[in-house]
Amino acid sequence: MRVFLGAGSAILWAMLAQPVFAQASSTATPANDAASTADGNAIIVTAQRREQALQDVSAAITAIGTDRLVEAQVNNLSDLQTIVPSVNFGNDFNQAKIFIRGVGANTSTTGNATGVALHVDGAVVSRAEAQLTSLFDLARVEVLRGPQGTLYGRNATGGSINLITAKPTRTFEGYGRVTFGNYSNLITEAAISGPITEGIAFRIAGKTEDRDGFGTNPVTGNDVDDLNRRMLRGHLQFDLGTAAQLLLTGEYFRQDDHSGAVHYLAASFPNVARLAPLGVGGYATRPRDLASEVDVGTDTESYSFTGTLNVDISDTLSLTNIANYRKFDTSLFQDLDLSGVINSLQTTGQATTVQERRIDSEQYSNELQLNYSVDFLDLIVGGFYFHERQRPIDNVGLSRRNGMASNIPLLRAAGIDLAEAYALCGYSPDDVTGGSTVIAPKRVCTRSNLGTDAYAVFGQANIGLGLLSPALESLTLKLGGRYSHEKIDSANPSIVIAGGGRGPVIRYTTEGTFRERSFSDFTPEVGLEWRAMPDLLVYYTYAEGFKAGSGENSAGSTTIVDPETIQNHELGIKATLANGFAINLAAYTYDLQGLQLNKTISGGPTGYQTIFQNAAETTAKGFELDLFGRLTPEFRISAAVAYTDAKFQDYLTLDPLNPVNILTPGTPAYNPVTNPNPTAFGAPGGGDIQLAGNQLRNTPRWAWNFHAEHDFDLAGGVLTAMGDVSYKSRTYFTEFEREIESTAAYAMVDASLNWAAGDDGIRLQAWVRNLTNVDRVGSTFALATGRLLGATYLPPRTYGVTVGYSF
After folding, report:
1. In what order do the strands lie in the sheet with 263-267?
2. Which pLDDT tens digit goes with each residue over 5-55?
3. Which residues, other chains included, contact 615 with Cβ-Cβ below 8 Å and sequence gap of 6+?
4. pLDDT digits (tens, 9 = 90+) for 437-495
């Protein structure tokens, strides 16, 4: 089933999951655009792998169209959270943390997969780091809430976010936009589309993002959290006769800036002398600044090729196949003590903490799909293949820049081959610094090798029960299922110089750390739709989801955790009222077993240890209310409310902020009897504690948003005034429900004025985001190496103007 690149397989490599709907993509309207139904135009989505009106889909979906994305200045996934309140976004270690209904990315090691899937034109984007790329030239974004175990399968236990790009058109059209804003913000975006010759059309789009940092590094004077991004996408669409289309897509992304690192928040063990942070005296005084002897930075390059083949075999049967290849490389540099103090055994007696994380990932996917549709039956059956090989490298410590003596004699005394040591660290012994001095290998070098091979077969049928009796013609039965099989392998060869670089040297080999596990599961879906009235749909769905176990990139680790499984019940109502005003309500409850969670704890040979484990059971219940439409021809609104009560039912785990659990020796020697718990955070006693009843990570109990817009005739065009208010209640970033590892409730306000001469021509926009300059943490992370808590922050107030022209 695996597809290989080559001339002989070009047609097969041009295939996977979602049909090419060039015309539908250009005319589809956004769910949060209140005009979408007022003019009689249905909101078209492809969330169920075929074109459907949003109000006909028996699932909780939010669809956001082109205009709404542009007017809300949505440039990345994180920007969506003010529009879709049931979704929460964060990031740390340059990884996207996407959560829906309490399910998402609960780890910060690159081996683990996400709990919310991201797809671009039907092709999955596996790496959480790769999900941080920018959004541009999109027809719409579809957010599917709840497990998508049948049609999407792997790693969609929480839901799926689908990016639908704008496709080639049969007439020449295009646009260009330039945005200027504070922090020297400069964004350019342009696209051109049209026919090349009869039966061949193209589309080319590109975007650049440049911005000064929200903070600075007081040691070097350089920016922190700035942006420097470049991206390009090209489509070629071929009409293969009257019944087939082939779409070839290439995409490129490049980033090189000082973003992605965490900032100093607090000491992990206040008042515990033996566990004092390693950077005391060198922290930045302003939260958005980050002091460090080395500039933090993210260096990313990614490219992707996708081929989609659509064939209408008959009036009732069609074939769709999408194949994708994605190459992703990124490096993150940061000092884990988050301080300008230059640690070394010679000067401070502390180990150096400069980290470099590199990720080299290749993935292939292919999905073949058959769609059959007659009066009483819509049927989809298909097969899926996915392969990924990633080779992350994690290095910590020891460089000549901080005055540390070479560790080469230690390695030689331990019988370590220097070529092997350099290879594990990801560089050559010919690499030099200061002109001619060979760089010594780091004190921790881990070069992991992580692989995934996944296969699945799936099917879903919507059966009109009117086939059995006219009395049942308002009822539709939904039956679906997916069988998944995944093979996971993991190896973490490492060289560790324990004692912070003093020794001894510990070596973990590939053979000694290699592990392999296989997982299989069947995820059914059963639902009933009742079309009570032409504009009223009531539905119930039972669905399961499956996320296979995975390994981690950690020195010497042999862990491959068990899978996650979820069982979800959902009851929904979709109503379209007078003048196209729509109200949608979904209520749900789920049980999830084996939630995969990651944390680090201080101590051990490397100075930090990872804990990657499964929580026994979590549950959730909640509801989501969406409404949108026109109140008058000029006045449109949309709003959404999400309530989520997601908590642990059973989870025994170690608290990384309890000093009783930290075995690192110190002076004076630690005595749990005379000094049992002198910290502000850890619970009394050591060992595992039961967290039943605690709230899940990154899941506010309440979240809502409200959007309003009004049109005014002005200067031969239309001026539209827009405003957004979004709210989230307190959000915890760990399972321990500590205030220090959370963000307080907040509301953000965005506003804009938009003037357009018409569908084509000049467009002007003046906008502001986070109008009241709310200052909130976006995520926290316990940095075991530096013995402190780090944080990332939501963007401050930003504002600017956008000038555009379309034709």
Report:
1. 263-267, 788-793, 777-783
2. 333 333 222 322 333 333 333 333 333 443 344 344 577 888 788 888 888
3. 594, 595, 597, 648, 650, 651, 653, 735
4. 445 667 888 999 999 999 999 999 999 999 999 999 999 999 999 999 999 999 999 99
| Contact between residue 140 and residue 164 where contact means Cβ atoms under 8 Å apart | yes
The count of other CB atoms within 10 Å of the CB of residue 513 is 22
The predicted structure's pLDDT at residue 437: 44
- Mind listing the pLDDT tens digit for each residue in 553-583? 888 999 999 999 999 999 999 999 887 789 9
Predicted local distance difference test score (pLDDT) of residue 677: 54
Residues 211, 226 contacting (CB under 8 angstroms): yes
Domains and CATH numbers, the chain: 7-358+391-806 (2.40.170.20)
Return all residues near 56 (Cβ < 8 A) that are at least 6 apart. 537
Neighbours of 197 (CB within 10 A): 6
Phi, psi of 510 (to 5 degrees): -60, -45
Looking at 729-760, which runs of residues are DSSP E strands? 731-732, 742-743, 746-756
Phi and psi, residue 628, nearest 5°: -165, 150
Is 337 within 8 Å of 277 (Cβ atoms)?
A: yes
Alpha-carbon distance 699 to 590, whole Å? Answer: 15
Q: Cα–Cα distance between 538 and 529 in angstroms, integer? A: 6
* Helix%, strand%, coil% for the chain, nearest 5: 10, 50, 40
Question: Is the confidence at residue 404, as pLDDT, over 50?
Answer: no
> β-strands 494-497, 116-120: how paired?
unpaired
Six-digit token string for 624: 């989501």
Strand-pairing partners, residue 357, are 332, 394
